[in-house]
């Protein structure tokens, strides 16, 4: 192994339960700086729950979580973290705000109280919109865009604060195949050129594994965490965790033929 | 016709109070509406009535209460009510709007008891229900000015935060915004604005002043910022018309204000219809 890059996300023995049944149990995971990790697992396996724990939106019953080397409850540099949630575009569709205004929100945490958007900030917003190819829509009301376009705007909002860690929970749902591929290209570029660390949840495992550097398989706890290549070539994964993977492996066999 | 408003103190008071209320009520209303909480204004105005009724009841027994304006008791109740609503909204998670009928019915129930104990309605109570041009004393005016200044300053300071929170609570929380605290502050402001507006618009109609101009603004605004500009303009038109006509025609100003707000809303909807129709025509002509 090479000299170790610093660990950005560290999860130790995490247990979380909404009711009496644990959704996550004794989960361990670490994400190294500069990696592009794909998180896979069947519906209800706890992917979104894990992400919410990492973001501090919900409090686990047991275990330790660290972000950028400091314990979660001490961590306060949230502008380093971008997040696009699974239900990102299910906001109030008639909300009377422009695309520009929505993306600006990504800077509010950084700006803090008593500080207002300056020209430099406005440029950042336009830049983020350009990155997702939505700059032409800056003045449009957010509610009048298509679902996929809204999703891109929300990705721009996550990018605008120039985070070091970007967490995306099924961001390509509702985005057409071509745009999804362009979006993955963009993520790869951000990862390779700017060293952005990425955590990506997707059910489109076949496409995703072509882009990520690492894969983690989740079902209550992490059952596999290795490079994308190891994941693709491991024939046992199907027995380790359920339908989705069988499905992928099946697909891979198809492709291999 | 207009100079009479500068001859008499009480009319001048009503005018200044109206301008301020016509500004702050619709502006706070923008956040209420986009959060889908328009009915909170109704619940809080009714709980204000509870406070006022309690004051009027107590004044029957303790002379000291007659020295103070009942609106202060109303304000205290409105603030307490807003704290309850805030709390109930977190308890009911997915059914946040349940908090509103709970507080509203509790408020009206108590108010009715207080009013019947105090031997029923009197003219005083009537002016609280429907507003009155003559009701704004110089103490009232001072209270309204103070509340207006507080609201405008806080709107300016927390605009970003409240905007973010109303759009997307989860994301706002991740950016490190102290959501709970900001929500609480917002609820208290709404309670204060409602209590301040009651003198002019009346309890039954104060929520209309917070929501109708916003509904009209939605038909015009091209951005969230513009929502505030349009809501304030429409609020001003309604309130000033209400005060002028209310005085000259001897009508309850609350009624006139709301009728004007409704007319503006209808015109706004009509304008949008016309715009859409002409777009369709253009498409067909092509
Ligand atoms: N708010 C909640 N209250 C109670 N249980 C919940 C809640 N949210 C999720 N769960 C349960 O937790 C488990 C994990 O849910 P989670 O949303 O993390 O799954 P997921 O892996 O993201 O699934 P998907 O692929 O469908 O997005 C599920 O069994 C679900 O029933
Ligand atoms: Mg999920």
From TrEMBL, chain B:
Pfam families: ABC-3. The keyword Transmembrane helix applies. Coiled coil: none annotated. Keywords: Membrane, Transmembrane, Transmembrane helix, Transport. It comes from the Bacteria. It is found in: Cell membrane; Membrane. Gene3D superfamilies: ABC transporter involved in vitamin B12 uptake, BtuC. InterPro entries: ABC_BtuC-like (IPR037294), ABC_TroCD (IPR001626). It is a multi-pass membrane protein. The chain crosses the membrane at residues 14-34, 46-65, 71-88, 100-121, 141-159, 180-198, 251-270. Its main location: membrane. Belongs to the ABC-3 integral membrane protein family. This is Zinc transport system permease protein. It comes from Geomicrobium sediminis.
């Amino acid at each position: 192994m090479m000299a170790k890059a610093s660990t950005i996300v560290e999860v130790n023995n995490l247990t979380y339960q909404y009711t009496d049944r644990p959704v996550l149990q004794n989960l361990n995971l670490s994400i190294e700086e500069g990696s592009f990790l794909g998180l896979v697992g069947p519906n209800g396996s706890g992917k979104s729950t894990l992400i919410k724990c990492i973001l501090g939106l919900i409090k686990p019953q047991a275990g330790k979580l660290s972000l950028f080397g400091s314990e979660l409850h001490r961590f306060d540099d949230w502008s380093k973290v971008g997040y696009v949630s699974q239900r990102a575009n299910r906001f109030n569709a008639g909300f009377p705000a422009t695309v520009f205004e929505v993306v600006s929100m990504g800077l509010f945490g950084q700006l803090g109280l008593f500080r207002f958007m300056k020209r430099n900030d406005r440029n950042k917003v336009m830049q983020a919109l350009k990155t997702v190819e939505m700059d032409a829509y800056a003045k449009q009301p957010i509610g009048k865009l298509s679902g996929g376009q809204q999703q891109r705007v929300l990705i721009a909002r996550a990018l605008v604060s120039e985070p070091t860690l970007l967490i995306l929970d099924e961001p390509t749902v509702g985005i057409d195949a071509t745009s999804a591929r362009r979006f993955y290209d963009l993520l790869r570029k951000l990862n390779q050129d700017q060293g952005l660390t990425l955590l990506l949840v997707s059910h489109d495992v076949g496409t995703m594994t072509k882009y990520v550097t690492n894969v983690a398989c989740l079902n209550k706890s992490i059952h596999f965490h290795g490079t994308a290549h190891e994941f693709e070539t491991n024939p046992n994964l199907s027995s380790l965790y359920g339908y989705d993977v069988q499905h992928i492996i099946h697909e891979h066999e198809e492709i291999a033929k | 016709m207009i100079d009479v408003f500068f001859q008499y103190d009480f009319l001048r008071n009503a005018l200044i109070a109206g301008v301020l209320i016509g500004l702050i009520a619709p502006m706070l209303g923008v956040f209420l509406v986009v959060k889908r909480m328009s009915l909170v204004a109704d619940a809080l105005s009714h709980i204000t009535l509870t406070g006022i009724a309690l004051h009027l009841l107590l004044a029957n027994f303790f002379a000291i209460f007659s020295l103070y304006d009942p609106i202060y008791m109303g304000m205290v109740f409105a603030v307490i009510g807003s704290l309850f609503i805030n709390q109930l909204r977190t308890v009911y998670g997915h059914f946040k709007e349940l908090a509103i009928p709970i507080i509203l019915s509790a408020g009206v129930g108590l108010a009715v008891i207080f009013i019947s104990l105090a031997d029923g309605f009197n003219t005083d109570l009537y002016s609280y229900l429907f507003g009155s041009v003559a009701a704004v004393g110089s103490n009232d005016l001072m209270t309204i000015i103070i509340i207006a200044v507080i609201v405008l300053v806080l709107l300016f300071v927390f605009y970003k935060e409240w905007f973010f929170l109303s759009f997307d609570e989860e994301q706002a929380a991740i950016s490190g915004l102290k959501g709970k605290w900001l929500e609480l502050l917002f609820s208290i402001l709404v309670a204060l604005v409602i209590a301040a507006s009651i003198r002019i618009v009346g309890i039954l109609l104060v929520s209309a002043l917070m929501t109708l101009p916003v509904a009209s603004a939605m038909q015009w605004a091209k951005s969230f910022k513009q929502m505030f500009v349009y809501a304030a303009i429409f609020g001003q038109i309604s309130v000033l018309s209400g005060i002028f006509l209310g005085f000259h025609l001897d009508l309850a100003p609350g009624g006139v204000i709301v009728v004007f707000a409704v007319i503006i809303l209808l015109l706004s909807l009509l304008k949008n219809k016309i715009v859409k129709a002409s777009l369709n025509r253009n498409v067909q002509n092509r």
